[in-house]
Structure formats: C-alpha cells, structure tokens
Amino acid sequence: MPQDRPHHAHREPGDSPSRRQTYSARQVVAALWPYLLAAALYIAIGVAQPRFLLSWSEGIIFLLLVVWGVPELYRRRRRR
C-alpha cells in the first residue's frame, strides 16, 4: 500500500512542525494590554468626538502611538 503522505527530510527528535510554543499568562497579558488600552481610549475618544472614528489614517497613527509609544515611555520612566 503506497503512502499518502510525502516523504520528508530527516528531522531531529523534538523538531516537529506541530510543536507549539507555550506562553505564560504574564507574557500574554504583557503583549495584550497595549491593544486593550488603545481600544478603550479609541472608544472613549470616539464617544467624545465621533468624527475621529471615521478617519482610518488617524486610527492607525493612534494605534501605533498607544501600542508602541506608551510602553516605550513607561520603560524609560522605570529606568530612571
């Protein structure tokens, strides 16, 4: 009976493509909180200034500033 799966090159033990990296809860929260903060602020600004929500370019700039800028300012402040 022929194999249905193609033959693959030799792989080392534990080098399976289906192996998934596990993340701790702290790593997940650390990666997620800037996006949650950006979403909350964007909604709050949108309620106060509905025209802001209609501009996709301002939304992208806002997302980059909050997701990258706020954590960077936090890290700089902690180093002092």
- Specify the oligomeric state: single chain
What's the rounded overall pLDDT mean? 78
* SSE run: HHH
**Biggest beta-sheet profile:** none
Shape designation: extended
Structural class designation: mainly alpha
Instruction: Report Rg.
Output: 22 Å
Short overview:
This protein is an all-alpha fold and 80 residues long. The chain has a domain of 55 residues.
Describe this structure in words.
The protein is extended and about 40 Å long. It has a domain of 55 residues. The relative contact order is 0.09. Helix 1 crosses helix 3. 65% of the residues lie in helices and 0% in strands. The protein has three helices and no strands. With 80 residues, the chain is mostly helical. The model has no long low-confidence stretch (mean pLDDT 78).
